[in-house]
Amino acid sequence: MTVEVLKLKILTPAGPVFPGRGFYQLEEDALYVQITPFSRDYRFFSFLESERVRFDLDKDGRLLFFELALARRRWPVDNRFRVPEKSEPAEIRWLDFRDSMIEPKITTNKKRTAVKLLFSDEKPLCNYELADSVILQTDRAAHLVALYVTEIIDDIAGQEIAAFRHAVLKQQARAERPVSQI
Q1: How far is residue 119 from each of residues 18, 161, 181, measured CA to CA in Å?
Q2: Which of 13, 80, 138, 166 has the smallest count of CB within 10 Å of its CB?
Q3: Structure confidence at residue 19 as a pLDDT band (50, 70, 90)
Q4: pTM of the prediction?
């Protein structure tokens, strides 16, 4: 069964915004978007997928990672492409699991440094900061309207995403050390 409308639960953020980012894998022609750090607290549990997009979710319905398996050269350029100017932090829980979803409409800016995945023609009501470079839009019923990746880094052989993950883990380890060890 294909989920036509992706239902979300919007919560007050429990902590800081994740340092997410998009990494375009040049040799694979795919965009990998890291949302949460790889750690024991955030482990893969389930998924939502379409032909070109896959969302990896944890047991609590948090989006961990997603992939857009469509070559950047095939992303249609929208001359009116605009990233939402304001967004607020929120903890987003996805309420659909282990299912297929509708194929989003993909658009990009002229430089192809940002991308929008449009899931609904409904007018967006709220903009939420899912991670540093990822904005999620919802309608009045908390259904997913669009997902933006606002910073995309070219990556060869996963080197950039690996360095990003390492830096995030290192930063977490520093933050978790007792004051006496610093």
Answers
A1: 23, 26, 47
A2: 80
A3: confident
A4: 0.87
